[in-house]
Design a protein that fits this description.
8-stranded mixed β-sheet, single chain, alpha/beta, 10 helices, TIM Barrel, alanine racemase activity, 8-stranded parallel β-barrel, 28% helix, 356 residues
């Protein structure tokens, strides 16, 4: 079975790097755990870091977190589905919201459960994912403030996840100004301006993050060490906390060009081949992992000589050329992953999960 490993020490190193960075800026931050897909082994490693807030977009994962560590403050980080309202009130201390009817339903359910539910209202700042339109914001807050079992604890925004709209000083200063405007108009304190995510971290390095931004939600940079803004690795962080290992289940020297009439493969793709490759051969290895688990464009072999030859539902074929490193059937091939690769792998129940 192919398996993924989490390096305990490298995770700790990345966590302490970020924690020091945020503490020096007076910023509170929450770990986004959705990459872990509710895996209890890995969640326990994150909880053991001493975190105070965990964010997730699946209520089942928040339920698992609360069972493991009831004292951790949990945040549901997408607009709540109406059918999930009872569970969200039960397992999420805070939820991100954009719809008045949804917040009204949260208030009614919180009353039933004898709670006050906390909300962060998300503002549309150009990414066109979730967010209240800015022209409607004052009226929206006014109506939410009237709800008896709702406590508004923040204003926030999401950037870069859908269309790649990057955060900048102007967008985030606008978010801070909206917070000040709402506080002044309604004489209410709003603790969090949650405008930060992994993609916003470089603004701290460049000293252009507005002082009003006091809350970050970080997942990718913690687990992958990425500077999402510039698509690089942050100096001083590890980009291999997570590693994938797949076993070679066949290794045979074969032609590099298929034989026969070419149609489409399992994904519906058709292929053409260079006539100069006809008659050539290479050592081709089959790995025990496939499209059901991950797409090869999200994987990066530790051995730079390995090339991807193709994928099917349960197998990936790699080209080893002349096999100078003498790979054998049964050997493990190691890969790094990008965020989407790690997310897909973690979501696959066919991939083993280990801690190093």
């Amino acid at each position: 079975m192919a398996f993924i490993t989490l390096d305990q020490q490298k995770l700790k190193d990345n966590y302490h790097y970020l924690d020091k960075l945020f503490r020096e800026e007076g910023i509170q931050w929450a770990v986004v755990s959705k990459l872990l897909c509710g895996n209890r082994l890995y969640l326990q490693e994150v909880i053991s870091l001493g975190i105070h807030q965990l964010c997730d977009s699946r209520v089942s994962n928040l339920r698992a977190i609360k069972k493991m560590s009831p004292e951790i403050e949990t945040i549901y980080i997408k607009p709540p589905p109406m059918r999930s309202i009872p569970e969200i009130v039960r397992y999420a201390d805070i939820s991100f919201n954009t719809g008045l009817s949804t917040i009204q339903a949260l208030s009614a359910e919180a009353e039933k459960q004898g709670k006050v539910h906390q909300v962060i209202i998300m503002v549309e700042m150009g990414e066109l994912r979730e967010g209240v339109m800015r022209d409607d914001l004052i009226e929206f807050y006014e109506k939410v403030f009237r709800l008896p079992h709702i406590n508004v604890v923040g204003i926030g925004t999401n950037l870069s996840c859908l269309y790649g709209v990057l955060p900048n000083h102007d967008k985030l200063i606008q978010l801070s100004l909206y917070k000040q405007l709402i506080e002044a108009k309604f004489n209410r304190k709003i603790p969090y301006v949650s405008g930060g995510s992994s993609v916003s971290i470089p603004l701290i390095f460049e000293k252009i993050l507005p002082k009003g931004i006091n809350h970050f939600r970080v997942g990718e940079t913690l687990f992958l060490g990425t500077d999402v803004y510039h698509d690089t690795v942050i100096n001083g962080m590890h980009n291999d906390v997570l590693r994938l290992y797949a076993e070679i289940i066949e290794l045979i020297e074969k032609p590099t060009v298929p034989m026969g009439e070419i149609g489409t493969n399992v994904e519906g793709h058709s292929f053409s081949f260079d006539a100069e490759s006809s008659g050539k051969t290479a050592c081709r290895a089959i790995l025990d992992i496939g499209l059901l688990d991950v797409e090869s464009n999200h994987l990066f072999p530790a051995d730079p000589q390995i090339k991807f030859a193709g994928s099917s539902s349960d197998m990936i074929v790699i080209d080893l050329g002349g096999n100078e490193k003498n790979y054998k059937t049964g050997d493990l091939v190691e890969f790094k992953m990008d965020y989407m690769g790690a997310l897909r792998i973690m979501n696959s129940r066919y991939i083993g999960k280990q801690v190093r």
